[in-house]
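Duplicate of #3305? Posting structure anyway:
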């Protein structure tokens, strides 16, 4: 093995794979560095786990086969993760020459959406930390940054926080916030008015693109393709891309399949519903910003009741403030219950219990509850388990993380997959729809 030089072997292997597959292989393998060969194992330096997982899934068998062709030896692969990409991807200068305002309209960022006003908890710590690093050194370590999570959990807040920070730190940088819907509309209008060159100049000559709700783009074939090329242009120029979505990349099914792999090139992070302590901290921060005193017991009541949506959480506080301002009365828990009774998602007393759902589903399918929490994946158990997860997600205030924990410690992405699969069955099978409706009614009757 001493006569095999690792960098030479790797470069020859990549060149052959590139000729077979094309640019996708090149872009996946370009940031990889061959370190050494020990005991017939080639050690590769990768930027993060997404790269190593992606290479294992897509190319590892072929890579090993090429090693064999080139050397006549069975050479394996081991990955060493190096998060800091600074040496591999040198920092881009986000301060180009001045661009006249008339030539490039800059985004207006919400001044209230800053890192200082964002409450950090277990549910969003990775997302916050990544966004903060990007705002200080865009286009280097975490590019692209793909952020996913449910409605009202703070994704848009972080996009605007990045924008506000970049404007302050790099005042001449070209930063654009947009939604996927606006991107699609801009593209359609550019075609209609024969101004596609202007459209591409707007989106591809940026230092940072912040695009919200990318799931809106999926299944719009021409717009997908245009965004694919926009992404490539920005990425190849080492310019920052931040994308938000309501789902993880692997759950998307775009026409342009290469989009999914590109979403996973950099950092992928989720925001889940905040825990009780974080919800309390959010309400206290909001009351400080609004200069409005709320008793601790009222804060605890609201935080215990509104569990899955920060927007609704903060909206409840604004509603309490408006009532107190108009009436001049002090807030109490009983008063808050009455004021918010029409806007809260569930009354505290009427929340369905997870145990009831699991018991009723198990009984319906002649299973033991422990089967739903176990590791068996046979169809006779997998479907009831997915159905129970689906019912828990629509009949309780529990987060996907909490639901997954109640089913044997499963990941929240498993819960999201179950919801998607059951919803598809409901849309396609009227008999299954009737069964689920009956099961929901039975669960509610037991709870009541």
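Output from current build:
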């Amino acid at each position: 093995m001493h006569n095999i030089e690792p960098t030479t072997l790797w470069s020859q292997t990549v060149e052959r794979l590139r000729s077979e597959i094309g640019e996708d292989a090149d872009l996946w393998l370009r940031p990889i560095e061959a370190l050494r060969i020990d005991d017939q194992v080639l050690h590769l330096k990768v930027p993060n786990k997404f790269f190593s997982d992606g290479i294992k899934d897509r190319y590892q068998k072929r890579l090993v086969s090429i090693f064999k062709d080139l050397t006549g030896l069975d050479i394996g692969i081991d990955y060493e993760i190096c998060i800091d990409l600074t040496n591999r991807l040198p920092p881009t200068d986000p301060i180009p020459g001045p661009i006249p305002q008339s030539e490039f309209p800059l985004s207006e960022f919400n001044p209230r959406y800053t890192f200082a006003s964002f409450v950090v908890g277990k549910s969003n710590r990775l997302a916050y930390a990544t966004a903060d690093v990007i705002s200080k050194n865009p286009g280097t370590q975490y590019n692209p940054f793909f952020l996913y999570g449910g409605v009202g959990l703070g994704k848009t807040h972080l996009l605007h926080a990045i924008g506000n920070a970049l404007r302050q730190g790099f005042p001449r940088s070209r930063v654009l916030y947009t939604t996927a819907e606006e991107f699609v509309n801009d593209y359609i209008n550019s075609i209609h008015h024969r101004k596609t060159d202007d459209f591409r100049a707007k989106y591809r000559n940026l230092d940072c693109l912040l695009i919200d709700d990318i799931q809106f783009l999926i299944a719009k074939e021409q717009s997908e393709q245009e965004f694919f090329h926009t992404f490539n242009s920005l990425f190849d120029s080492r310019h920052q891309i931040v994308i938000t979505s309501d789902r993880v990349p692997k759950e998307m099914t775009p026409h342009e399949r290469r989009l999914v792999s590109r979403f996973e090139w950099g950092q992928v992070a989720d925001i889940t519903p905040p825990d009780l302590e974080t919800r309390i901290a959010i309400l206290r921060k909001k009351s400080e910003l609004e200069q409005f005193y709320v008793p601790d017991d009222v804060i605890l009541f609201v935080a215990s009741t509104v569990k899955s949506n920060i927007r609704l959480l903060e909206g409840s506080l604004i509603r309490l403030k408006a009532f107190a301002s108009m009436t001049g009365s002090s807030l109490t828990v009983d008063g808050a219950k009455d004021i918010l009774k029409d806007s809260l998602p569930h009354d505290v007393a009427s929340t369905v219990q997870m145990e009831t759902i699991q018991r009723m589903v198990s009984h319906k399918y002649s299973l033991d509850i422990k089967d739903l929490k176990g590791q068996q994946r046979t169809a006779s158990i997998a479907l009831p388990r997915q159905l129970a997860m689906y019912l828990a997600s629509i009949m309780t205030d529990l987060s996907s993380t909490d639901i997954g924990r109640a089913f044997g410690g499963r990941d929240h992405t498993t819960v999201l997959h179950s919801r998607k699969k059951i919803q598809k069955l409901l849309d396609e099978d009227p008999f299954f729809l009737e069964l689920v409706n009956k099961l929901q009614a039975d669960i509610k009757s037991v709870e009541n």
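Confirmed duplicate; merging threads. The chain is about 55% helix and 10% strand. The two ends are 72 Å apart (CA to CA).
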